Amino acid sequence: MHRSPTPWAQRAVIPAVLLLAASIALLAPAAATVLQRNVSPNGRETCTVEDGSGASYSRGTVPLPITPDWVGTRVRATGALVWFDADADGDQDLFVGTYWANQWPPLEDYYNFMYLNVGGMLEDDPSWISADQKHTGGAEWGYINNDTYPDLFLANGGSSLQPCQVFYGRNGLLPTTADWQNGGGTWTTGCSLADFDRDGDTDVATSNQGISPNPYRPTYVFRNTGNELETTPCWQSNQVGITDACDWGDMDGDLYPDLAVSGWVNWQSGVFHNLGTTLDPNFAWTTGHPERTDKGVGWADLDRDGHLDLAVGGSGYPDWVFRNEGTILGATPIWASGESYTGCQDLAWVDIDRDGDMDLASIHFSTGHVRIYLNEGGVLPSLADWQYDAESSGSAIGFGDVNGDGWLDLAIGVANGPVELFINQQLPTGVEETAAELPRSARVTPNPLHGAFRLSLDAPAPTALTSVELLDPSGRRIAQGASAADGLQRTHAITWRSTPRALENLPGGVYLLRASGQDALGQPWTTGQRVVWLRP
């Protein structure tokens, strides 16, 4: 059911690293009222939230409101947000991973929970609550046990070094007790899923840290044996330190995903090269700036040249993007965020305006700002096109399609507050509908699909198709296709432009097929259809 949000008191935030927390009182305005004292999911940053004016704005054509359309009922510390179909009913539900911290006001508990999708909107109260409390700083869904139901991997840790977990999907609601866990002994800060060895199943990489007096850990990879992850890592990095996030992406174009990690201060952010059945334990590339504190890392093809570029979030430093020069990333960033303070906690690439390129989103811990930078011809602006000033310290973002309209919506989580949801408005403010001749929807046959298919467009007249893309639920492009025949048609037979190897190990599941083209008058259009991909 839709619920109108009730805003908390406005506030301003003063950032501080945990070791400098004592200086917060010296920096705060004398008349300010302290509303919260928060701790980040990795326990290494604190900030004080005080009353003051907000800083939300929208410019450009970001199709999101600057006030939430829905606000959750549970006030917790959110470490992860994941959209996926948790109850096998065909729509996307929202998993909320929570964490424990010694904060004020104190947290009630840290049971993970899930808001189910009911008729295109999230329910008011979560129907799913985990059986045990876990400090969850990251999560991702994938097909781990090799059936057709999505599974959920949780990156757990906290001061008790809790083990990571997997919940296996089934025909019905996800179970509340885990089906798998590793050996623990590590504070896992993030995770990323991919078939890194291309043997047909999904493996998992984790970024990690420890606790004093042994605060350092390697980066790990857990291999899938066919329908289950091994409980001990099959690979670990030679860098033993503190990493905050990881992401798989094919840097050199050999179709084997390489692993990027972001490092805490004094530790490298870089990429480990995939050797085929294992990874090189030493970096193939680094940012060259171990003095930075980096949080958040993600691959996307910013300039649409066919090579994945890399975004690295900075905490107290600008966010950066490095361009892929063909088989290796460049030595210097081609983009840096220009805001006066960046305390990135999480970032994501997403095509929020459905114009065919990837935009960059980030959430910041100390300021509580959520920012979206629109991609215009392969270039990001130095200042965000859209910013939301959250009522607490920002801690997690997640994009999913709650109402099934093909446009991605935004959920945000904070260190001490409810989850908030922003519904994509589809047409940005100031953009007029050019309506009559443009397709309103697409139909794919056969659906499920795993190879050739036909795309039928709901349009009053035949239309030209220029591009077809297969996207995962986060908006990342997996493969690209084209019409087998040029010209104006209502039904187009599709052939894949990418090599078959790009699709042969794609996990089965629900994906978005996005089509773009022009009508007979030359008006551009874009439409989408959710499809079920079957493993060949």
- What helical percentage do the residues reach? under 10%
Number of strands: 41
Query: Alpha-carbon distance between the termini?
Result: 39 Å
Low-confidence stretches: 1-31, 428-436
The main β sheet shows up as: 7 strands, antiparallel
Quote the average pLDDT.
85
What overall form do the CA principal axes indicate? globular
Radius of gyration from CA coordinates: 22 Å
| Count of DSSP H/I helices | 2
Strand order of the largest sheet: 35-36-39-38-37-40-41
Structural category:
mainly beta
Strand composition percent: 35-45%
Could you name the key traits of this structure?
536 residues; mainly beta; 7-stranded antiparallel β-sheet; 5-stranded antiparallel β-sheet; 41 strands; 1% helix; 41% strand; globular; disordered N terminus
Can you describe this structure?
This protein is mostly beta strands. Helix content is 1%, strand content 41%. The strands form ten sheets. Strands 35-36-39-38-37-40-41 form a seven-stranded antiparallel β-sheet, with no helix packed on it. β40 (509-518) and β41 form a beta hairpin. The chain is globular, with a radius of gyration of 22 Å. The relative contact order is 0.12. Mean pLDDT is 85; it is low at 1-31 and 428-436.
